[in-house]
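Entry 12.
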Amino acid sequence: MKRHILAICLTLLTCIGVNAQDNYVRGIMAIQNNEPALARFYLEKAVVDDPNLGYAHALLAHTYNQFGLNNEALASADKALSVIMPFDNDGKYLALNSKALALANLSEAGSLDEAQKTKLRNEAIENFTLALKIKTDPQSLFFRARLLMKVKRYDEALQECEKINALTKDNEKNYVLMGEIYADMKNHKQAIDAYSIALKINSKTT
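Predicted 3D structure (tokens):
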């Protein structure tokens, strides 16, 4: 995933000013080296140098999410979506995923009432839906399924879990989620079955 993002981003360099280009490249390399603090530093400088650099905003949203800076991530993702070209599916995918994750994280704030949490979760679900129309990704499906469970859209959540099972093999985390969904539905037998599969997978890998 990171290499794919790097390849896409580097193709844009000829369209960027010198200062923005330098900071942009440094930010990308910091992401590749798993240095989120450094990535944040350079990407913030890049978007100051060139506010219309959509990929930098999208990558910055991703980086802010790593620090739990959800409002900043949401703002950066929205900015990315406002300046990324309509045909640029890779950029839109990254921005939509980052926005969805920020919304999902914001929905967990203890100060919110259930109606506010549900509103944010439904917004996150919609953004994951838009991202998944661009590219099918098991992690995004998993996040969407968990959110669907939290808003009690159980059948849709289980459909996402089945998609994950079709894309991945022996996904312990996914079967645990299925168990949680069935338990919420008071379908105890299927919940036990799902948890049992998760335990079997876990025993193979430990």
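Annotation: The chain has a mean pLDDT of 92. Residues 80 and 142 are 24 Å apart (CA to CA).
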